[in-house]
Design a protein that fits this description.
The chain is α/β, with parallel strands linked by helices. The protein is built from 15 helices and 13 strands.
Amino acid sequence: MLRLKMATIRGVKMKVLQVNCVYDYGSTGKITKDLHEGLIKRGIDSVVLYGRRQSTHDSNVFKTCSEVEAKGWNVLSRIIGHPYEVSPIGTNVLINRIKKEKPDIVHLQCLNGYFVNIYKLIDWLKANKIPTVLTLHAEFMYTGGCGIAFECNQWKTELGCGQQMTCPLYGSEFKSIFGDQSSYMWQKMKSAFEGFDRNLVVVSVSPWLMERASKAPILISKQHRVVCNGLDTTVFKFYDTMDLRKKHNCENKKVVFHATPAFSADSEHLKGGYYVIDLARKMPDLCFIVAGQVIDSFDAPSNMIFLGKLDSKKLLAKYYSMADVTVITSKRETFSMVCAESLCCGTPVVGFKAGGPEQIALPEYSSFVQQGCVDLLMQAVNSFLALSCSKKEIEETARCYYSIKTMTDKYIGVYNDLLRAENNR
């Protein structure tokens, strides 16, 4: 049995091992890399294990699952309905790597992606009494299944999902030849976390997420903390953007910016592009610029400009800087990197209430209105356009709140508290 002591108390360098589905890809992959580099700068030994996407040559970063195995289990799990009980080879590689590294802390980030058997990993960490930090970026670790529960509350009940009614996502997100498997997944996740109390801290990326997680039967008895995601404030900062304004012929116009992974005119789409189109039609004197992959065809108003996916973070930051207001129209977000990035570039944010964004935003430079109400959203946009906020002032305030340094320091505090409690037992 692995019995890990508090490295910092012994005067030995602390060692932290992160596990995430990806590395330097997508939001959680970038957060994982930023934390890895931030810990190294603080003199902490840092290791990352990840399962999907591209290989990397970064020091102490290891891929644990082949794409062939992960993709195979992706297909199989969609048939049998068990997306978190997958990849036995990748799971064994990951656990054996943890044994080899002997970390003081295992920090679990996002574990979906078909690269690890979540139940087996949690059971193993629990059985070996390894101090563990679990960061929630989505809801599936306490719903047992869905990444976003929306208005469904089955996961809150003592009986769990699938007992009183069929899962609302069965047939769309979850399919199985054996029927609705939500009850099985909920029970398996609950069993994995039972008894894993003293050596576990659950971190949520927003107060909204922590409130839900702390009431979920799967995680109700655990220690809960909030640590907001950090971003690179040497890139996401205010830039002079007169060149971009000239490029898009909007030197004398107010600009509304919308950034999203995928833009759709479908009224049911999670990111709410439909409402941005409606807003643009109602505000023809403004220039609306959208960054993100357009995934369907539609008739766009003439005052909308579509940039497609921006691979350069610096160019994305320049568009945030160029805008007078950034609009967020998601139906649900556990955090909102768009909100944090925009504020760090000096641009206020307006949007629909979606859970996380309205709680992690700087209240003096943001406004969130009733979900789906475009008229209220339009009023909020007009209010900020009339204020002429100081971009430098917004940037300086946001930098302190959303920086990688702030995130890293808070996680080090979580690690030390957990190890101190473990050492005093």
